[in-house]
Amino acid sequence: MSGNVVSLHWSESMSVGHPVLDEQHKKLLALCVDTERISKSGSDTTTEEFAALLSEMIAYAAAHFEYEEEIIRTAGYPQCDDHIKEHRKFFAYLNALKTKQATSQALKDVKTFLMQWCVHHILKEDMGYKSSLTNKS
């Protein structure tokens, strides 16, 4: 469990070379770590806390994705459309979770999904556009 949290600490290897996007990625990672904290509280977590966590993640991710999509579109990233589809899948999954009760299993599902998605998306998908951004500089 703690291994997952360690993997969510920001490192320069996660930098996409764009200061604003890097700061936004740090915030997304912090929200993912919050799921770890909330999931540890187990039965003490209320449906309201669960919904608030999802709402915060969805709202922040929406703002981040909108900004990121504009940046990579402007940079001429060739896989921009595929990247945007990944963002839409993220929203679909989280929106589906909003209707679930805050059971320990639901919290584990959210925690696992967010940790895996954030790390994979930043380290693999977002790194794909890094060269498009640096070539525009």
Per-chain topology:
Blueprint: H1 2-7, H2 19-40, H3 47-74, H4 80-97, H5 104-136
Helix pairs in contact: 2-3, 2-5, 3-4, 4-5
Low-confidence stretches are 1-6
By helix and strand content, what is the structural category?
mainly alpha
Helix content: over 70%
Question: What shape does the CA trace take?
Answer: elongated
Number of domains: 1
User: In angstroms, what is the radius of gyration?
Assistant: 15 Å
Mean pLDDT: 83
Under CATH at level 1, the class stands as Mainly Alpha
User: CATH-wise, what's the superfamily?
Assistant: Hemerythrin-like
Using the coordinates shown, work out and report the CATH topology.
Answer: Four Helix Bundle (Hemerythrin (Met), subunit A)
What amount of the residues lies in strands?
A: under 5%
CATH architecture: Up-down Bundle
Largest sheet entry: none
Oligomer: single chain
Q: What is the number of helices?
A: 5
Structure write-up:
- There is one protein chain.
- The protein contains 5 helices and no strands.
- It has 137 residues and is mostly helical.
- It has a single domain, classed as Four Helix Bundle (Hemerythrin (Met), subunit A), CATH 1.20.120.50.
- The termini are far apart.
